Amino acid sequence: MRKGDISEDEELGVLEDKTEALTLRSKRTERTRKKQAKKTKKTKSQPLDILSLPYELVLGIFSWLRPSDVFNLQRVNKAFYGFIAQAERRITRVITRWRYVCLEKCFRLPILLQQVGPSIHALLQDPDRQEILTIHKKPYQHVQSPDPAEICTCLTCLLRWSSLCLIVDFAHWQENLDIGEPIPMIPRGKHPEWNQALLASNAAIVRKALHSPLWHARLLETHLDSITRSIRRQAANKGNKRKRFRMLKEDVDSGSDLFLERSGPPSLDFPFHRDNYYMLEAYLPNRSWNADQRRWMYVPADQHNTDIQFIVKWAEFRRRKAAAELEDVAKSSS
Question: Taking the CB of residue 145, how many other CB atoms lie within 10 A of it?
Fold first, then answer.
């Protein structure tokens, strides 16, 4: 193109865009940039925690923990607390499945009254029936009586309540038993304030177990510890020649109650007084030894339903008997 000629772009009026983004150099912008870079670096370098693993793998890890360990994990942070609260039932099931195979069947939970049909409530609260159960509701010095408005008062549930309360009380006095310090004895008919507070505290723990599977498992862990300590004490007592469960160091280290499935002395009798704690080794109710099959036989889990059916039949029998007596009175008066 010769000098003075007009280019084609100029002729068409097309302009070339040479604008560029301005470089921001303010102090405020620089601080913001550094803060964002630091935050990004911290996020990338932060290690992943156990809850970032697949759900089934987390459950597998939790299955090796004791219930007390799970309670400690709940206190770590909100994430652990939320996860455990949401998966409590499943976590407890996998732990109990191998740690407390025996104890779970010996110490089942009493049924809450709200879980019993409303039509049965009146039968359970019948004064005549309550009179029959007086021997089982008689307050012990070491077990608080159950609230009939809270749990079912069939015979099975009453015995389950007392057994769970005994776990807590027996564990409370383990230190005394280990060091040979006598347990304070309470004169008959006396109700010292310290003992009433202890019974209330024990019952409060059992009530937590009624609503929380993890608390129930914690009671089983506590009782297994009491049993192992008791067996050690009795083994060290050279004057005690009674038969006891064979417990090895490996059994204690495993944290499992499988050694209680071996043959051993029957220990289903309820300790009616704290005096019984001195020679008590393994209180394991609701089971008996089958010599023919060479194994322990446990009271079935649905024994509560059997008791309820018995109560219904008992109420029907009394109703028919009362109706027959009224009919006989009516015939004799006529």
Answer: 16
